[in-house]
Design goal:
The complex is a heterodimer of chains A (308) and B (469).
Chain A lengths: L1 H40 L2 E6 L2 E7 L3 H8 L3 H31 L8 H9 L6 H11 L5 H8 L13 H29 L3 H9 L4 H29 L3 H6 L13 H8 L5 H25 L1 H9 L1
Antiparallel strand pairs in A: 1-2
Helix pairs in contact in A: 1-12, 2-12, 3-7, 3-9, 4-7, 5-7, 7-9, 9-12, 11-12
Chain B lengths: L1 H26 L26 E6 L3 H9 L3 E3 L9 E3 L2 E7 L6 H9 L12 E7 H8 L9 H4 L11 H5 L11 E2 L4 E7 H8 L4 H7 L3 H13 L3 E3 L2 H9 L7 E2 L2 E2 L3 H15 L12 H5 L7 E7 H7 L14 E4 L5 E2 L3 E5 L6 H13 L1 H11 L6 H9 L14 H10 L9 H16 L5 H15 L7
Parallel strand pairs in B: 1-4, 1-5, 8-11
Antiparallel strand pairs in B: 2-3, 3-4, 5-14, 6-14, 7-11, 7-12, 7-13, 9-10
Helix pairs in contact in B: 10-11, 15-16, 18-19
The chains are: A mainly alpha (308), B alpha+beta (469).
């Protein structure tokens, strides 16, 4: 009797593995192998000089050293974080607000579906197209400048892309517009997952909407918030398309809007796989550390939740 | 049991289809924008029957395609309105593979196809590719050996005798072999706004205007005069960059070391003064609003620097109301002579159509009749001393854009003087980075020393093998 049972379990496992194959194959081909080759490549001097291949020669940690001593890794990391924060802070605030409104049945909002679709729409535009649009809008002779000048607010066109803060704010703003819909939907899902009886109980006890939000919604939303924070942080560290197109790959002015990945891309001019690989590994470690910190900071409650 | 077999089948089918998907993505050749399909007509027999039936040409725009369409004898286009759609020469199909220049894409394409060209199928081989002066050295390099020496095709030095020396120098490798040829001579000058010259300088005669721009100090003094009347002396600091960078005493890179020439630093200092005084801007070429605006009277730009193709094609001559349209430009030598642009035809190593390639190069770059036709129909300043002399001699060389001025004598003289000994294979990357970095200096975002340091870093990123300090 027990024999038969065990056999069955094993067989089911086998099917489980078979159904996992498509994922595993995709994962190995498109994620694991590139990851390993990136790390492997980072130990080599390997680039093109014109049409001549230089290397690959094993040089140990030389690329890592060069990046630290000659590259401006810290500067680009700071740029990336600043631009990410400019986009993320308003994004999370607005998303929480919208999420709370959408998930609050007592507000009886009309046309919810419509608005949920609309706020998600910017995410469907290609980042590059969005970036081109902003580049045209805010160029020296673009519509924004001519409107400001004609309205008498400015006496001469403001060079948005020659100003460090204006360029950063524009990039942050674009990321904000593109991603707040996505975040809203995630947070809303989280809020709707909270047991409604808790809200009712609080209301019966005479809690104000503000108290409900701070004392019930937010703490219970923590796992989703952590998830949003981590994914946004990782996405933010890999920020590339918007600033790349907006500044024509130069991170101008003075490389103040150059992100880490844009810097990586600079090394691909000479197909410098070694240096680009080393940079990727740094980024990999950095992402790991940051995710770990965020995870730890929001730790104990999260674990409890997961065990449930 | 049946169920299990079925599900196993399904699962394996899923995996298989996925693998097939991967496979497809990996082996499909990059889509070429040419519409013409290789036609295998085994019937026609001619002298070069042993040669390939497909001629593939790598280009970055439609310029060469339209030259070939309009001027190569016996060329039948597939679509008269779209030169890059390809055509036929006899029974050989001509395909143009267009890769735009942006973000180094064209060079990346060449880098991908040229080294392994010889081992490809006959119909997929690149037979001809075009290069520009800025990166020509990279592709005519003897050790890279991706462009055939013209002598191997059977083109002798005597065949090229009417061409200007600089156009040959650019495509000459370290061993002295010429590996390309151009139909254009792109010596350039200062293109000035006649109305502005009359208003501010009191004359629009090229020889007299030259006195006001004969060297950089005079040029800068004239800038102040123009500025008083509200004119920009040049639309952008980037306009004069090529003039300075063409007149350096040492190349960007010498023995693997980056050198920043004094004349380049003079550009920095002169331009900073002009920019601070608001006599010019930091607009990018081609896209800048001020830069493009200067093609019209309202833009109030005094001068541009450029060769024949620049005033013929780039200054909006076909737009009503533009200065070019009204014949309002004049051409003079300017502070320093220089050249800009030009397209060289190279035969790809491994081509299976050497006879046809040879004939195309000879016809397009040495045939007097064809070149005169190009000069007259397309207003190219052709790379042919005899033809330019003819054009300079009679009224057929008078150009409406320049208010009837005949520029050919000046351009021919300029072409003789161009000195190509100071180019290096790193020019394009260095020039681009330098202009980017110093834009921030002009706009006061960093000091000159910071800009220089940033420039060195940028060069090191692009060319890790160089020493920069």
């Amino acid at each position: 009797m027990s024999k038969v049972k065990r056999g069955k379990v094993v067989r089911y496992n086998r099917w489980g593995y078979i159904f996992l194959i498509p994922f595993m194959v995709t994962f190995i081909i498109f994620q694991l192998i590139p990851l390993c080759t990136t790390i492997y490549n980072s130990f080599f001097e390997n680039y093109m000089s014109g049409l001549k291949q230089v290397g690959p020669t094993f040089i140990g940690l030389e690329n890592y050293k060069t990046l630290i001593t000659e590259g401006d890794l810290g500067k680009y990391f700071t740029n990336t974080l600043i631009v990410w924060l400019i986009g993320f802070v308003p994004q999370i605030i607005l998303s929480l607000l919208l999420g709370a409104w959408f998930s609050d049945p007592s507000l009886r909002l009309k046309g919810q579906r419509f608005f949920k679709t609309v706020i998600y729409l910017p995410n469907l535009i290609m980042a590059s197209a969005f970036s081109m649009l902003f580049f045209t809008l805010f160029s020296d002779g673009g519509p924004i400048n001519s409107m400001l000048v004609q309205a008498g607010i400015l006496s001469e066109p403001f060079k948005f892309f020659s100003s460090i803060s204006a360029t950063r704010i524009l990039i942050g703003f674009m990321n904000f517009v593109m991603w707040f819909g996505n975040t809203t939907i995630l947070l809303m899902a989280g809020m709707m997952g909270i047991d409604p009886s808790l809200f009712e109980a609080a209301e019966v006890d005479g809690a104000t909407p503000r108290q409900i939000f701070w004392k019930i919604t937010l703490p219970l939303l923590r796992p989703i918030l952590v998830y949003v924070l981590i994914t946004s942080l990782i996405g933010g560290l890999q920020m590339f398309d918007v600033p790349q197109i907006l500044t024509n790959g130069e991170g101008s002015p003075v490389r103040s809007s150059m992100t880490l990945i844009m810097y990586l891309n600079k090394h691909l001019y000479s197909k410098n796989y070694g240096m680009a690989g080393a940079l990727s590994v740094y980024l990999f470690i950095l992402t790991g550390i940051l995710s770990f910190i965020v995870f730890k900071l929001t730790g104990p409650q999260k674990e409890k939740k997961e065990k449930k | 049991m049946k169920k299990k077999v079925l599900s196993a089948l399904l699962a394996s089918a899923m995996v298989a289809s996925m693998m097939a998907g991967c496979n497809n993505g990996g082996t499909n050749p990059a889509p070429s924008s040419s519409a013409g399909q290789p036609a295998q007509s085994g019937t026609a027999v001619n002298n070069d029957a042993a040669e390939g039936k497909v001629l593939n040409i790598q280009v970055w725009n439609e310029e060469f395609a339209s030259r070939l369409t309009n001027h190569y004898p016996g060329y039948e286009p597939n679509d008269a309105n779209n030169p890059t759609a390809g055509g036929k020469i006899g029974d050989v199909t001509v395909n143009f593979i267009v890769t735009a220049n942006q973000n180094n894409a064209y060079q990346n394409q060449l880098d991908a196809v040229l080294p392994g060209n010889a081992s490809l199928d006959a119909d997929k081989k690149t037979d001809i590719f075009l290069v520009e002066a800025d990166y020509a050295l990279k592709y005519v390099d003897a050790s890279a050996n991706v462009a055939m020496p013209l002598s191997e095709l059977g083109i002798s030095d005597a065949d090229l005798s009417k061409q200007y020396q600089y156009t040959k120098d650019i495509v000459t490798d370290a061993n002295g072999a010429i590996r390309g040829a151009s139909w254009q001579a792109c010596s350039a000058g200062l293109i000035y706004n006649r109305a502005a010259a009359k208003e501010v300088l009191g004359t629009d005669d090229p020889a007299k205007v030259q006195e006001f721009v004969k060297d950089w100090d005079t040029f800068n003094a004239t800038a102040a005069k123009l500025g008083e009347k509200g004119y920009l002396v040049e639309a952008s600091v980037n306009d004069s960059f090529r003039v300075y960078s063409n007149n350096v005493t040492s190349p960007w890179v010498k023995d693997g070391k980056l050198t920043i020439d004094n004349n380049i630093m003079k550009w920095v200092d002169d331009s900073k003064v002009l920019y601070d005084a608001k006599y010019t801007t930091t607009d990018p070429l081609w896209d800048g609003d001020t830069w493009k605006g200067g093609f019209y009277p309202a833009g109030k730009v005094f001068a541009y620097f450029g060769p024949a193709w620049f005033f013929n094609f780039s200054m909006g001559a076909d737009q009503a109301g533009s200065i070019a349209n009204q014949g309002g430009w004049g051409l003079t030598t300017g502070p320093q002579g220089f050249f800009w642009g030009g397209t060289w035809i190279c035969a790809a190593q491994g081509t299976d159509n050497p006879t046809l390639v040879k004939d195309i190069i000879l016809t397009m770059t040495t045939d007097n009749a064809v070149m005169k036709e190009i000069a007259q129909q397309d207003s190219d300043c052709v790379n042919n001393k005899e033809v330019l002399k003819e054009l300079a001699a009679d009224a057929s060389g008078n150009l409406a854009i320049l208010g009837g001025q005949n520029p050919y004598e000046m351009l021919a003289k300029g072409a003789e003087l161009v000195d190509m000994s100071k180019i290096s294979a790193y020019d394009q990357g260095c020039n681009e980075s330098f202009q980017t970095v110093f834009k921030d200096y002009f706009e006061g975002k960093q000091t000159k020393d910071e800009a220089l340091a940033a420039f060195k870093k940028a060069v090191k990123e692009k060319y890790p093998e160089l020493t920069v300090d």
